[in-house]
C-alpha cells in the first residue's frame, strides 16, 4: 500500500518553493561534517567552513551582553528581587527589565500578547524609528512577528490571489521571496540589478519588465527592494529615489522593503537610509507611498537568529533593545559600544579581505563589499567546466560549489539559487566565519580555484 503522502501527492506549490541557502550543497556539507566526526581523516580537511547563511552566532559571534542580561531578567523576573543580582547584572539592565515587565500583562513573558505585539513595546519601537528617520511613526502600524520571514509570507498571502498577481523582485534576490511567491501561487516579475554599476537599478529595465508583465495579463501588486542588498551586498542610495518614482507609476501598489542589515555598512562614503525616510524627504506621504518595511533581530551586529524564532512568547523584546540601546551615562554603555563596534569593525575587515581575495582569482570579479553580510562574485567558467556540469545534470555554478565543498570543506551557495542574468554564473559567500578563520578560507579557495581552472582549461 502506497504511503498517503508522497512527493507526487503533496501540494505542487511546495515543490516549487526552493530555498537555496539550505539546499543541496548545505545538506551535503552536513553529511560530510558527520563523517568527519566519526572519522577525522575521512576527507582532506578537518572542518567544514560554513559561508552559506547569515547565522552569526552559529559561527562564533558573541551576543551583546546588555541584550542578554535584559532577556534573562525578563524571562526569570524573580532574579530582580535577589540581592546578588545587583552584582551580576548592570544597573541599567535591571532598570530596563523592570520597565519592560511593567508593560506586560501579568509581568510574564510566557503569556499571550496582543496580536500586533505588546503596545508598550510597539511604542518604544515607534520612537526608535522616528529617531532614526526624523518623521513620525505610529505604533499602531507596527506588527511584531516571529521573524521577518513569517511577515513576508503574511504579505504574500494578503496580496496574491492567483498566478495573475505578480510581485516585482530584484534579481539577484533573497530566495525567501521567490519561494514565498511560488508557495502562494503568484508570479515573480524580475527586474535585474546592474552588476557593472555596483548592482544598481536600471529604471528602463524595471519599466520594461512591468510592460512585459502587463502584456501577459499579470497584475503587479508590489515592488520588492532589499537594502542593504542580499546576496549582492550593495548599499542603496540613488536607487531608493529612483524606485520611489517608479513606485508612483504603480498606482499605489505597496513596496515591500527588506531592511534587516541597517547597521551593516562597511564603506565611509555610504550610509543606510530607510525607504520611508527617503520617500518622506521627497514629499511623498502615506497617500502616495503605501510602504511595508521588514526589520529583523537576526542580523545587524546582534545576530539573534535563534531568539527571533522563539520570540513569539514575547514579540519585539529584542527589537526594542535594538531600537533603544544603552545611552551615554548608563552603566552598560561603554561595554555595549565596545561590543557593537568590535563586531562591525571585524566584519568590515573580513569583507575587505574576502573581496580582495575573490578579485585575485582567475576569471572572478567581485563588486565592493558595501554592506549586509555577503559577497556575490561572478565567475567566468571554462566551457569544459560548463559541459561537465551539463553532463552531471547541474548548473555550472552549483558544479563549482559542490567541487569546492568536497575538496576544501568550504560552503558557498550557487548564484543560480538567487537568480542572475542568463549566461552568467555567481556564488554567494557570507563574511561571517570568525576573523581568525578567514585566512584558511582564502588559502583553501585560492588553491582549489587554481586546480579547478587548470583541470578545465581549454
Automatic annotation (TrEMBL):
GO terms for biological process: L-alanine catabolic process. GO terms for molecular function: L-alanine:2-oxoglutarate aminotransferase activity; pyridoxal phosphate binding. Its main location: cytoplasm. The keyword DNA damage does not apply. It holds the Pfam family Aminotran_1_2. It is found in: Cytoplasm. Its cofactor is pyridoxal 5'-phosphate. The keyword Transferase applies. GO terms for cellular component: cytoplasm. SUPFAM superfamilies: PLP-dependent transferases. Transmembrane segments: none annotated. InterPro entries: ALAT1/2-like, Aminotransferase_I/II_large, PyrdxlP-dep_Trfase, PyrdxlP-dep_Trfase_major, PyrdxlP-dep_Trfase_small. Keywords: Acetylation, Aminotransferase, Cytoplasm, Phosphoprotein, Pyridoxal phosphate, Transferase. Pathway: Photosynthesis; C4 acid pathway. Residues 98-301 form the Aminotransferase class I/classII large domain. Belongs to the class-I pyridoxal-phosphate-dependent aminotransferase family. Alanine aminotransferase subfamily. Catalyzes the reversible transamination between alanine and 2-oxoglutarate to form pyruvate and glutamate. Participates in cellular nitrogen metabolism and also in liver gluconeogenesis starting with precursors transported from skeletal muscles. PANTHER family: ALANINE AMINOTRANSFERASE, ALANINE TRANSAMINASE. Homodimer. This is Alanine aminotransferase 1. The lineage of its organism: Eukaryota, Viridiplantae, Streptophyta, Embryophyta, Tracheophyta.
Amino acid at each position: 500500500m502506497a504511503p498517503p503522502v508522497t512527493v507526487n501527492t503533496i501540494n505542487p506549490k511546495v515543490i516549487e518553493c526552493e530555498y537555496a541557502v539550505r539546499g543541496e550543497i548545505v545538506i551535503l556539507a552536513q553529511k560530510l561534517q558527520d563523517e568527519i566526526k566519526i572519522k577525522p581523516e575521512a576527507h582532506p580537511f578537518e572542518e567544514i567552513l560554513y559561508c552559506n547563511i547569515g547565522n552569526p552566532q552559529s559561527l562564533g559571534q558573541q551576543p551583546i551582553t546588555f541584550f542578554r542580561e535584559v532577556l534573562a531578567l525578563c524571562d526569570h523576573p524573580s532574579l530582580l528581587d535577589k540581592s546578588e543580582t545587583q552584582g551580576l547584572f548592570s544597573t541599567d539592565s535591571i532598570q530596563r527589565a523592570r520597565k519592560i515587565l511593567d508593560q506586560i500583562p501579568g509581568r510574564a513573558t510566557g503569556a499571550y500578547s496582543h496580536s500586533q505585539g505588546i503596545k508598550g513595546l510597539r511604542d518604544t519601537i515607534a520612537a526608535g524609528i522616528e529617531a532614526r528617520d526624523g518623521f513620525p511613526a505610529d505604533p499602531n502600524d507596527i506588527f511584531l512577528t516571529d521573524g521577518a520571514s513569517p511577515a513576508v509570507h503574511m504579505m504574500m498571502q494578503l496580496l496574491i490571489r492567483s498566478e495573475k498577481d505578480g510581485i516585482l523582485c530584484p534579481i539577484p534576490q533573497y530566495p525567501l521571496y521567490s519561494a514565498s511567491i511560488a508557495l502562494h501561487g503568484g508570479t515573480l516579475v524580475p527586474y535585474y540589478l546592474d552588476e557593472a554599476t555596483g548592482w544598481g537599478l536600471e529604471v528602463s529595465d524595471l519599466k520594461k519588465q512591468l510592460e512585459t508583465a502587463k502584456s501577459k495579463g499579470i497584475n503587479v501588486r508590489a515592488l520588492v527592494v532589499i537594502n542593504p542588498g542580499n546576496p549582492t551586498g550593495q548599499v542603496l542610495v540613488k536607487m531608493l529615489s529612483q524606485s520611489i518614482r517608479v513606485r508612483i507609476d504603480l498606482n499605489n501598489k505597496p513596496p515591500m522593503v527588506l531592511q534587516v542589515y541597517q547597521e551593516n555598512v562597511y564603506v565611509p562614503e555610504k550610509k543606510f537610509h530607510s525607504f520611508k525616510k527617503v520617500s518622506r524627504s521627497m514629499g511623498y506621504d502615506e497617500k502616495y507611498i503605501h510602504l511595508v518595511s521588514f526589520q529583523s533581530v537576526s542580523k545587524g551586529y546582534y545576530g539573534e537568529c535563534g531568539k527571533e524564532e522563539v520570540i513569539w512568547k514575547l514579540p519585539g523584546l529584542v527589537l526594542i533593545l535594538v531600537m533603544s540601546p544603552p545611552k551615554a551615562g548608563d552603566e552598560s554603555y561603554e561595554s555595549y559600544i565596545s561590543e557593537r563596534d568590535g563586531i562591525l569593525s571585524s566584519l568590515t575587515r573580513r569583507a575587505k579581505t574576502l573581496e580582495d581575495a575573490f578579485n585575485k582569482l582567475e576569471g572572478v570579479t567581485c563588486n565592493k563589499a558595501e554592506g549586509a553580510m555577503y559577497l556575490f562574485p561572478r565567475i567566468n567558467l571554462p566551457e569544459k567546466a560548463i559541459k561537465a556540469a551539463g553532463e552531471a545534470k547541474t548548473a555550472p555554478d552549483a558544479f563549482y560549489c559542490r567541487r569546492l565543498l568536497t575538496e576544501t570543506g568550504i560552503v558557498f551557495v550557487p548564484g543560480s539559487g538567487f537568480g542572475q542574468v542568463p549566461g552568467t554564473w555567481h556564488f554567494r559567500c557570507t563574511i561571517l566565519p570568525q576573523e581568525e578563520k578567514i585566512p584558511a578560507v582564502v588559502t583553501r579557495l585560492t588553491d582549489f580555484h587554481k586546480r579547478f581552472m587548470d583541470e578545465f582549461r581549454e
